[in-house]
Amino acid sequence: MSKRFDCVVAGTCVADILVRPVPLEAPIGGGRLFHVDPVEVTTGGIVCNTGVALRRLGASVEAAAVVGDDLWAGEIRSRLAAAGVGATAIESRPGAATSTTAALIDASGERSFAHHIGAAGLLDVMFLRRHAAVFARSRFAVLGYVGLLPTLEPQLAEAVGVLRAAGCQVVLETGGSGGSLADVVAALPAVDVFVPSLDEARSQTGCDDPREIIACYRRHGAAGIVGVKCGARGIVLSPTPDVTVDIPCIAAPGPVVDTTGAGDSFLAGLVAGLARGMPAETAGRLGAATAACCVTRAGATAGLRDLTETMRLAGL
User: Fold this and answer.
1) For residue 147, what are the CA distances in angstroms to 35, 117, 175, 218?
2) Which side of the chain, N or C, has fewer Cβ within a 10 Å radius?
3) What are the pLDDT digits (tens) for 193-245?
4) CA atoms within 13 A on the CB side of 166
5) Domain 5-24+37-314 has CATH 3.30.43.10
6) pLDDT digits over 255-290, tens only?
7) Confidence check: pLDDT of 3 > 80
8) 168 and 8 Cβ atoms separated by less than 8 Å
9) Cβ(63)–Cβ(47) under 8 Å?
10) Strand 5-11 to 243-247 pairing
11) Is there a contact between 276 and 314 (Cβ–Cβ < 8 Å)?
12) Where do the structural domains in the chain lie, given as residue ranges?
C-alpha cells in the first residue's frame, strides 16, 4: 500500500487548561485566592502536541486517539482540523470523559500538572488493529505516552508489533512516570526511536547518568535510535549501538514563557528530520530547535515556527 502520510500520532489526546502564574516553590494552602493571567484552553497530549508540531514542520499527519463524548472532544477535533492534522482515526466513546489536564505554570515557565486520564486510558491493541489501514498508509507511527496508557501498556510489545506489521517505523514516547521497565523492554527490540525524558528514564531504569540509561536500554535489546532528553542540559542521543552524541539545547528565539510541550516538540523535530532523510544527529538538532521555539509562548504549540525558520534556528 502506498504511503500517504509521513506520520500517524497515536495515544494520549488531551484538553489543556493553562493557569499562569502559579507559585510552585511552596504549597498554596487552602482557603486562598490568588490572581492569575487569563486562563487559556488549548490542546495537549502527544497526539495534539507532536501532531501539530509535525504539521507545522511540513509533515503530513494523522491523529489516532480515544476521546470522550463531551465538549472537550469537539474542541480537540476542531483544533486539529484547523492545524491541518487528520482526525479520521479519533474515536469518541459514549459516557467517557475526554482526557484533561490543568497545567499550573510559574513565572519562570516551569509547570506542574493535574491530570485526568479519562478516555485515553481506554486505548488498547484492538484500537490499533481497527485502524490498521490508517497506519498502513504512514511511514512513521508515534505511540505514547507510556506511563499514561494503563490498558495498552501490558500489551505494549503486541501493540508495537501491530504498527510494524502495518509497515511503520515505530517511535515510542513516555509520560508521567514513564511506565514500567518490564513493559518497555518487551517492546524495545522492535522500536525504531525511543528518547524518554531523564526523569522518566530514571524511574524505569534506576540509573542517573544518561549514558548508563542508554546502555541499559541497549542491554535489553534496543537496536534503533535511543536517547535521553535532559531538559536545559540538552539531549544525549545514540543513533546506533556504538555511537553516542551530545546535542546541546538551542537558545530560545525569545523569552521563555512556558516549557509545556518542549519534549513533544523535540520529538516532532526529530521525526520530521528523519522523515526527510536527515542523519539522526542532524534530526536531533532540528528537534532541539523545535523545542526552543515551543517555550516562547504559553501552551505546547503556540510558539512553533515553520520548517524554514526552525531549520535556520538549528543552523541547518
Assistant:
1) 33, 11, 5, 20
2) N
3) 999 999 999 999 999 999 999 999 999 999 999 999 999 899 999 999 999 99
4) 27
5) no
6) 998 888 999 999 999 999 999 999 999 999 999 999
7) no
8) yes
9) yes
10) unpaired
11) no
12) 5-24+37-314
Nearest-5° angle of CA 47, CA 52, CA 141? 50
Digit-coded pLDDT (tens) for 59-108: 999 999 999 999 999 999 999 999 999 999 999 999 999 999 998 988 88
Q: For residues 289 and 20, is the Cβ–Cβ distance under 8 A?
A: no
Residue appearing with cell numbers 535532559: 230
Q: How far is CA 211 from the centre of its chain?
A: 22
Residues 22-58 as b or e (16 or more Cβ within 10 Å = b): beeeeeeeeeeeeeeeeeeebbbbbbbbbbbbbbbbe
Q: DSSP per residue over the chain, as a string?
A: ----EEEEEEE--EEEEEE-----SS---SS-----SPPEEEEEHHHHHHHHHHHHTT--EEEEEEE-SSHHHHHHHHHHHHHT-EEEEEEE-TTPPPEEEEEEE-TTS-EEEEEE-GGGGG--HHHHHHTHHHHHTEEEEEEEEETS-TTTGGGHHHHHHHHHHTT-EEEEEE-TT---HHHHHHHGGG-SEE--BHHHHHHHH---SHHHHHHHHHHTT--SEEEEE-GGG-EEEEEETTEEEEE-----SS-----TTHHHHHHHHHHHHHHTT--HHHHHHHHHHHHHHHTTSSSSSTT---HHHHHHHHT-
Q: Which residues pair with 141 in a beta bridge?
A: 8, 170
What's this model's pTM, rounded to 2 decimal places? 0.92
**C-alpha cell belonging to residue 262:** 518542549
